[in-house]
Write a structure and sequence with these properties.
This protein is of the alpha+beta class. It has three helices and eight strands; from the N terminus they run αβαβαββββββ.
Length: about 100
């Protein structure tokens, strides 16, 4: 795969109460990814950037909310979220800026 493309697949880590619970219970990390990203691309990007081995990847599409802008109704964009399951004993520490 193109290394330049892999650098654009991961947008940000998704840090929330649910993501922290999933990380503790299932050894998974949650990322916000590009809307056209695929599972193999996400796996390769995580392995390239954080130097860890990935066991599996699950991707879900988060639907944008309906919002009112003044008098008009509009909607936020849909976005993708990837649950990356790491091999046993590996973790990604975002505080230090990389793999631990």
């Amino acid at each position: 795969m193109n290394q330049q493309r892999l650098m654009q697949v991961l947008l940000a880590p998704q840090i929330s109460e649910k993501a922290t619970h999933v990380a503790d219970k299932h050894e998974q990390v949650v990322f916000r990814v590009a809307s056209d990203a695929t599972k193999p691309e996400v796996k390769a990007a995580v392995e390239l950037l954080f130097k860890v081995t990935v066991k599996s990847v699950q991707i879900s599409v988060v639907k944008g909310k309906q919002k009112k802008f003044g008098r008009f109704m509009g909607s936020r964009s849909n976005w993708k979220k990837a649950y990356v399951c790491l091999n046993a004993g590996q973790e990604i520490n975002f505080v230090d800026g990389g793999a631990a």
